[in-house]
Structure formats: structure tokens, C-alpha cells
Amino acid sequence: MSVSLPKPGAPLEHYVSNADFDPDQFEAMSAGQQRYYMASQKKLMWWKFKRHKLALASGIFLLLAYGMIVIAEFLAPYELHTRNVDYIHSPPQMIHLFDKGNFVGPFVYGRKMTLDIDTLRRIYTDNPSDVQPIRFFCRGDAYRFWGLVDSNFHLVCPAVGGQMYLLGTDRLGRDVLSRIIYGARISLTIGLIGITISFALGIVIGGLAGYRGGLFDLLVQRVIEVLQSLPSLPLWMALAAIMPVSWSPIIVYFGITIILGILDWTGLARAVRSKLLSLREEDYVLAAQLMGASTPRIIGRHLVPGFMSHLIATATISVPSMILGETALSFLGLGLRPPITSWGILLTEAKNVSVIAFYPWLLFPMIPVILVILAFNFLGDGLRDAADPYK
């Protein structure tokens, strides 16, 4: 079968209709079709993201989690450092609604403590005759809201003169639930600050390497290969260990954040470089160059927005690694230090196997770590799928 080729210089055949737009054809479409064809790209992305139910639920969960850290003092039943030496290593209390067949509302039973002489363990038993109703929107432990405003107003409080330890207490008699809520403020924000540093380095260094190329690109690629060849955990430990012990906890917090951000930019830089290598050959980049646009403007105004959806999805996947990094360092004693409280610091209580055997509720801070990491991963999957709504 022979194929006839067009003569040199002859116009190529095309299949684009030259007819004028027929408004009647648009009017003949259903309301759903018109809504789809007239929708913007952002709206198409939102519609596709909503169809990913797991990602949508994860996004709502993360919004609630980050909203919780803003009012952690109000949500926590007790102040962060409140101790009760009469309830050391007390197991979690159950919430009840009915007492002897009568509806009482949410309450917990009071407890009696006895000491086992053989094992020297404290044994707590519920006292059914001591009903302690849970109070809501109540006055309790005094605190300083964000270290600025004095208050004692809480969402939930134990009964007057009673105790309420829904997730048990630690070795100093402190409420585990309250400390988990306070610890979320550090563990969740350290990921956001770290990803900000990582994105700034990754976009700038990767963008320059991909757009400029040459010797700078060669040096950046060799540095990235060296950093990625080093095992993450020992490198984190080495950098965290060089911070002086005399530093205040706040400075240590920002030091750990900067370390996590500096070591996490390599993967993003390579992704940005590969994107810019292909995008820099586009006509609109050449037009911007001919109009005299500077390199930072071309990268920031024309190239980076072209794959911003990919960057957002990458961020949601990178944040969990930073949360895990802080948790691991704090668990090993090389990260944050008291009085700052994070989920990693809370898990240091469960280092000993015997402690886990006798007081398993000290592992509860592991649950929010797992839930947040899973939520970020599911959210990243949904954003990555929604990034290209036309697929």
C-alpha cells in the first residue's frame, strides 16, 4: 500500500472545523455537561479530589488536627505539667453513661489504689459507689494560652474533687491524653516548618540547576548524590548530637527543624530540575527571555507554577518523613528535650520492655503518629491524582 506524501511547501491537511461556534449546540447540552465544559481547572481538580473519598477524609482529619493545636490548652483536661502522685501509672479510665440502670451522662468511677507488696506495683480498682460526672466547658487547671493569656477554661474537666485519666498517667502521675494534645503542637508544626525550608532550598537549587545547566548543574547533582548516599538516621543523629547541651529547648526545636529541612531538599531538587529541563525549551520561556525577564522571574513566575500541583503533592508526602525524623531523634534522646513535649518525647517513657509489659498505655502517643502519617500519604495520593484532572 503506497502512501502519497504532500508536496514540499503544500499546506498540511487538518481536521479542525473552521465553522463558527454554534450557541444552539451548547444550549442543547445538559446542565451537567455545560457545568463541566465551563469549569476552571481548579474546579475540575476539586471535583476529582472529592471523588477520592479516602484522601478527602484524610484532609478533613488533618485540618482538625492542625486546628486542635491552636487551642490545645483549651482541649486538654489538665495543664501540661500537672502531677498527681496518688495516681502514678494509673491505667485508662472507662467512660460510662448508666449507673445501676439509670442514665447519669458521661462519668467515670473513682478509684482505689493498693500496693502489691510482692511486686511493688500499684493496683487500681474502680469504686462503683463513687460516681464522678464529667464536666464540659468548665473551670479547671490554670494555664497560659500560647504563653500570653492566663486562663483556666477547658472543654472537658473531671468532677470537682475527682480525677479523669482517659488514657492513663505516666511515671510522674501526669495525664497522658493532655500531654498527647500538647505534644501535637510540636510534632505537627515541626513538619510544616521543615517542609518550608526544604521547599525553599529544593526549588531554588533545583530550579537553577535545571534552568542554567552546565557546571552548576553538575556540582548540584554530585552534592545530591553524596547526601542521598548517606543513611538518614545516623546523619540526623550526628547533626543533632553536635548541638550544645546548653542551648535552650526553643533553640533546639528550631535546630532540629532546620536539620530536617536541610537534609530533605535533595529529592525535591531533582524533581524540580527534571521538570525545568523540559519546560525551559517551551516557546513562552523563549518569549520571556526575549522580553528581558530575569532568571528568577522566569523560574518563579513562568516555570514553577506549571507544576505547582506536583509540588503540593510532594509536600504532603514529605511532611510525614520529617515528623518521623523528629519522633525518632526525640525517642533516642538526641532531639527535643523537656520541658518541650512532643510525641517522640512521650514515647521515651516506653523504651523499657518491662514498662511496656506493665503499662502498655504509655504507647498511646504512637497512635496519633501513625494516623497523621497515613493521612498525609492518603492526602498526597489524592492530590497527585487530582493534579491532572483531564486524565
From TrEMBL:
It is found in: Cell membrane. The keyword Metal-binding does not apply. CDD domains: TM_PBP2. Its main location: membrane. The chain crosses the membrane at residues 54-76, 186-211, 250-272, 311-336, 356-379. The keyword Plastid does not apply. This is ABC transporter permease.
